Amino acid sequence: MAQLIVLGGAPLHGDVAISGAKNAALPILAAALLAEQPVVIDNLPDLQDITTSIELLNALGCVCQRSDSHTLRVDASTADRVIAPYELVVKMRASILVLGPLLARHGRAEVSFPGGCAIGSRPVDLHLRGLEMMGAVIEIDGGYIKAEVPGGRLCGNHILMDVVSVGATENLMMAAVLADGETVIENAAREPEIVDLANCLNAWGARVSGAGSNRLVIQGVEKLGGGRYTVMPDRIETGTFLAAALATRGCVRTTRTDPTTLEAVLIKLQEAGALVATGSDWIELDARGRDIRAVDLRTAPYPAFPTDMQSQLMAVNAAASGSAMIHETIFENRLMQAQELNRMGAKITVEGHTALVKGVAQLRGAPVRASDLRASAGLVIAALAASGETVIDRVYHIDRGYERIEEKLQGLGATIERRQGPNIEES
Ligand code: UD1
Question: Which of 19, 229, 324, 353 could form a disulfide with 45 if both were Cys (CB 3.0 to 4.6 A apart)?
Fold first, then answer.
């Protein structure tokens, strides 16, 4: 199993180019199923989850051609299969995002029921209830969500979501694009990735308005054409590099990014003591010689502080002065990196959904284990700030969301390398 070996203690400095957003690219790839003509998607990040999505599109009968590692042409014109198999859904929960597009396009879908995952139970009830309100008949059979639309075409409806869900908003938005009449989604998620998906759908001929607000209005169209779309920059990758610069008291400029998508994160980084400057497509964080203070935070749906940046800020807090409370309100099991950070000398106590982090003067390198994608980003940041060597096991979690992470960090002066390690099973 691959490991990352980090020799910490040196401040990061330099420029790093940000990749396309994984969480925007995944729904956009699913949206390709709606189009009757070929689509070309640019600025795709080169990640394991994208490869899994492409495998899924192939399994559904699409013809996918990668002209380079960041550009993909998808032709779904003759795609006629409607089964998203267990082997692919189990690799990536976001596979559930093909449910809405398949139902909208073919009136039928069978998608393996996604199980729980490391960060929580992650139900899909909102996805299913919304689709039922649009006329789908759904049953769970043999571990599969089997859905059918009597009459073949979904009908627009007024849908209120009682929990703000990014994935459910995306699934229902995609389903509504080809539905009969108007769909209104109330209490919709407002994440920038939702806006990117709406812009992409509109570029291909859909009529979606209100994206970025909590009320989406979608006028169904007969068919979706095709076209070209460039995926937005990854705000979480951006925030991760900035947090790493802060934890190491360095100075890093993230380029090819969008400062408007991570205001809540920038506020916290400044509150911690960093100097932050922004331009139209770059953000620079300077923490050289500055006293870094631990900052309280509470995760919540956009535009509040993102749960996907919580572990990175926990790592910053662990090596800062003072102490801070972190409240995780989105997922029930997302403070797991705390125990691993404590193996590096951090002082973190977790009670329920809250962590109390008491900053220490110096973290120390140790062998640690990544438990999920964003938790591992926190471990990398702690390792960069720590003295001595940290060995991070189970790097495949990081590879799901960070493109060439060790190369990008090496470009910022970090001593980090990848190697094949032993397979150590959990006891
Ligand atoms: C997406 C992101 C993930 C991010 C999360 C929250 C992708 C591929 N993943 O995940 O990185 O951490 O948003 O910003 O974009 N819920 C229900 N019922 C449902 C659906 C969700 O109760 O049917 C709950 C979840 O358990 C969770 C909350 O809603 O507590 C938010 O989850 P959701 O926004 O759906 O997350 P994902 O779309 O899975």
Answer: 19
Cβ within 8 Å of residue 288, ≥6 positions away: 11, 249, 250, 251
Residues whose CB is less than 8 angstroms from the CB of residue 96 and which lie 6 or more positions away in sequence, other chains included: 89, 111, 114, 124, 127, 167, 171
- Give the Cα separation of 355 and 332 in Å (integer): 12
Question: Which DSSP string do the residues of 227-290 spell out, in sequence order?
Answer: EEEEPPB-HHHHHHHHHHHHHTT-EEEEES--GGG-HHHHHHHHHTT-EEEE-SSEEEEE-TTP
Give me ligand 1 centre to Cα 94, in Å. 10
Which of 425, 410, 362, 415 is closest to 391 using CA atoms? 415
Helix (H, G, I), strand (E, B) or coil at 110: strand
Q: For a pocket test of ligand 1, which of 121, 166, 190, 311 has the largest count of ligand atoms closer than 8 A to its C-beta?
A: 166
Q: What is the DSSP string of 350-372?
A: EETTEEEEE--S--B--EEE--S
Closest to 212 measured CA to CA, from 166, 143, 281: 166
DSSP codes joined into one string, 139-207: EEETTEEEEE-TTSS-B--EEE-SS--HHHHHHHHHHHHTSBSEEEEET----HHHHHHHHHHHHTT-E
- Let me know if 117 is a catalytic residue: yes
Q: Is 204 in the pocket of ligand 1 (CB under 6 A)?
A: no
C-alpha dist (Å) from residue 145 to 85, 318, 327: 11, 42, 33
Q: Phi and psi dihedrals of 169, rounded to 5? A: -60, -45
Per-residue pLDDT band at 112 (split at 50, 70, 90): very high
Q: Does 125 contact ligand 1 (Cβ within 6 A)?
A: yes
| CB count in 10 Å sphere of residue 412 | 23
Give the closest residue to 53 by CA, choosing from 98, 86, 20.
98
- Containing 382, the helix (H) or strand (E) segment is helix 373-385
What lies within 8 Å, CB to CB, of 158 at 6+ separation is 183, 184, 186
- Token readout for 287 is 């923490």
Is the C-beta atom of 330 inside 6 A of ligand 1? yes
Q: Is the pTM of this model over 0.70?
A: yes
Instruction: List, for residues 245-292, the tens digit of each pLDDT value.
Output: 999 999 999 999 999 999 999 999 999 999 999 999 999 999 999 999
CA of 414 to the centre of ligand 1 (A): 33
DSSP per-residue string spanning 42-64: ES----HHHHHHHHHHHHTT-EE
Distance CA 342, CA 390 (A): 13
